Hints:
The structure is a homodimer. The first copy, chain A, is mainly alpha-helical.
Amino acid sequence: xxxxxxxxxxxxxxxxxxxxxxxxxxxxxxxxxxxxxxxxxxxxxxxxxxxxxxxxxxxxxxxxxxxxxxxxxxxxxxxxxxxxxxxxxxxxxxxxxxxxxxxxxxxxxxxxxxxxxxxxxx
Amino acid sequence: xxxxxxxxxxxxxxxxxxxxxxxxxxxxxxxxxxxxxxxxxxxxxxxxxxxxxxxxxxxxxxxxxxxxxxxxxxxxxxxxxxxxxxxxxxxxxxxxxxxxxxxxxxxxxxxxxxxxxxxxxx
DNA sequence: TTAATACATGAACAGTTATTCATATGTTGA
DNA sequence: TCAACATATGAATAACTGTTCATGTATTAA
Lengths: 122, 122
């Protein structure tokens, strides 16, 4: 139970609705969490990466196969894979000179699917 | 049933794995869909917008309340709201000189929640 | 060892994006 | 009609992002 009269430091003046603001602040996500979540969504927010992730959600692929599927240069794909690796959205295993990529968990696959469903129902 | 021997136009040379590529191409999302989905995720991929959407997922808020909650200028918030409006992630209703914003559907709220849960389990 | 292959990476560049500032629009109450 | 207020928006700018090109590393086979 929070005493909003005391808790809230922006509860005066103009159009602002103290109660709303205080309540909203009370259950806002932290800056750090917002940052992390945004970072994840940002990675999903690029056509190339989205196609890569979608392809990987179906099967494990090596880099040059990914490049063939998304029709991009190997370098461009490698750069994107580095970002995806960095945020643990994908994992990889080496086999000789090849590297096989796959999604790191099905959580991602589920997010992806939900995004697709969203645009299909709009 | 697809005849991959005939269907696939990139099934030769180097490291590429014809079967994988052809299968992946077969169930790839279209460029247009990928574009749309990416666009949605891109909107979720910014800290300011994410905070706005998260706040709106709890309750309807007017512009200056949003500005107070996310601690941004009114102008910055308005600009972001325009983007969110444009992709129908939020809806609004006017009441006198104020405008009240809320999420357009709970689909968004659910995506948001899933994103938050993702980073909490990593 | 050497050449070929698969992948990674740094630098550079072009395109995009988020914020700020100034100003415009529209509503309300005096 | 005017002043105050809530919101929207155009322009400018700084920061960021994605691709390409050149090159580097590691692995394999000859």
